[in-house]
Amino acid sequence: MVRKMHPTLLPPILFRLVALLAIVPFVNTDTSHILRRSLYPSRLRHLRFQQRDVIPDLLEGWTAVGCYTDNVAARTLTFVGYTDTKNMTVDNCVNFCNTQNFVYAGVEYGQECYCGNVISNGGTTALDSDCSFPCNGNANETCGAGGRLNLYWSGAVPPAAPVIAPNNGLWISLGCYNDSPATRTLTVPTAVLGGASNNSVQSCTDTYFSSGYPLAGVEYSRECYCGTAIANDGAPTPPGDCPMVCSGNSSEFCGGPNRLNVYNYTGTDLPPITAPPVEGGGGGSPVFPVLSDLQVGWSYNACWVDNAHGRVFQTEFPDNQMLTVQGCAALCSSKNFSLAGLEYSVQCFCGDNLVQGSVKVPDNECDMGCSGNATEACGGRDRLSVYTSTGSVTTFPIPTVQTIDLPGNWHYSRCLAEPGAIRIFP
Ligand SMILES: *[C@@H]1O[C@H](CO)[C@@H](O)[C@H](O)[C@H]1NC(C)=O
Ligand SMILES: *[C@@H]1O[C@H](CO)[C@@H](O)[C@H](O)[C@H]1NC(C)=O
Ligand SMILES: *[C@@H]1O[C@H](CO)[C@@H](O)[C@H](O)[C@H]1NC(C)=O
Ligand SMILES: *[C@@H]1O[C@H](CO)[C@@H](O)[C@H](O)[C@H]1NC(C)=O
Ligand SMILES: *[C@@H]1O[C@H](CO)[C@@H](O)[C@H](O)[C@H]1NC(C)=O
Ligand SMILES: *[C@@H]1O[C@H](CO)[C@@H](O)[C@H](O)[C@H]1NC(C)=O
Ligand SMILES: *[C@@H]1O[C@H](CO)[C@@H](O)[C@H](O)[C@H]1NC(C)=O
């Protein structure tokens, strides 16, 4: 059987072959082992693992690359998948990364799953024996170790590293700008053709060209805004502030949290300004909260504001293109949370209370359909459809600095930035 070889494996193997040819007259059992390993990549996976080597259900095309270094501060695979403290297995992690369209998956520390399209931050091969932790979901498999991951590859060529698209036709990049939900830098939101999962510089600027706006910006991977001018003190920020790839094109950046990549139309043929298309994840049909058909004990609470002062839930799960209210509530329930929140068609949050001073708004502000069921309301832009298993929702105000009632002679000084990795208090 011919297997595709991971490109980073080739040089060491060629090197080993050359080294081997040089010492052929002195072949011993060790080097013949290396020869088998080099000539029969299909045996590679088997031989790279010592006692634990059986990966029964690995998805078609995926193969083991080996044991790699990792670093908590600078990940080898930069997309943090999930931690499963009970049932991490190689195929569970590979399946997860595969559904998120990544070409690499890595299991670490017996319980962690990472995904990526590039081997980043200088991650490199480590001794196989370094990857010594059994997977907590199947002790026959190896799931890395501290600072080590077992890397798997789908066989697909990784897409090119993303760039800030310099232009789309006559739309020219002005770079990364700051933004805030309360005071938008570009004030008019829109839905791009194909929905939030198809957001890109092209789909966003094309949409606004038709609406006649000269400035367009892409934010937080999935969002698209426009305006006639940079508003509300919006100002350029360093390019590294806009690190999120576009939901509809992984080759280019679409802003970041409260950051947008702004484009300026430099042609003279814009049509007159008209209202841009409105969003509505479910395809524009009316949407409703789910009032029955939920799991026992769960009920709808209300539509709540998110992100006015920060996220109001503390736990967010990866975007789900098949999200339903029942699915999110079941997930939160299985993790023993008492609240579930759905936002922007595809986002599921869990928690036990709402923080950052969230407030209730009328149900009709949660106007986007769920990605997995267009008639169910799944929040909106910065709006959460919230479900509870206790019949109520507890909220906490925006946190403030404690300046009174401090013990002894302590008093509050000020808030200091801690730049980079250098600690202010050694
Ligand atoms: C562990 O994951 C596998 C694959 O998803 C699943 O079939 C199995 O039921 C899970 N086991 C537990 C105890 O959750
Ligand atoms: C692990 O391997 C042993 C011995 O081959 C086998 O009996 C057992 O079923 C395996 N366990 C799993 C979870 O695959
Ligand atoms: C995706 O992004 C790349 C880089 O900006 C660009 O060259 C390409 O045309 C884009 N493709 C689509 C379909 O937008
Ligand atoms: C996604 O956006 C591109 C670029 O604007 C467009 O050509 C394509 O038709 C859109 N996809 C869907 C499914 O609407
Ligand atoms: C956009 O480009 C036009 C030239 O086509 C220029 O007059 C205008 O100042 C630019 N706008 C911004 C915000 O840079
Ligand atoms: C689930 O939450 C309840 C109430 O907070 C707690 O008593 C219980 O121990 C938790 N169960 C698990 C499995 O964490
Ligand atoms: C969509 O959700 C509604 C309300 O929960 C439910 O009645 C309906 O059966 C769902 N449709 C599908 C196709 O699952």
From TrEMBL:
It holds the Pfam family WSC. Residues 61-155, 170-266, 297-390 form the WSC domain. InterPro entries: Sialate-O-sulfotransferase, WSC_carb-bd. Residues 1-29 form the signal peptide. Keywords: Repeat, Signal. It comes from the Eukaryota. This is WSC domain-containing protein.
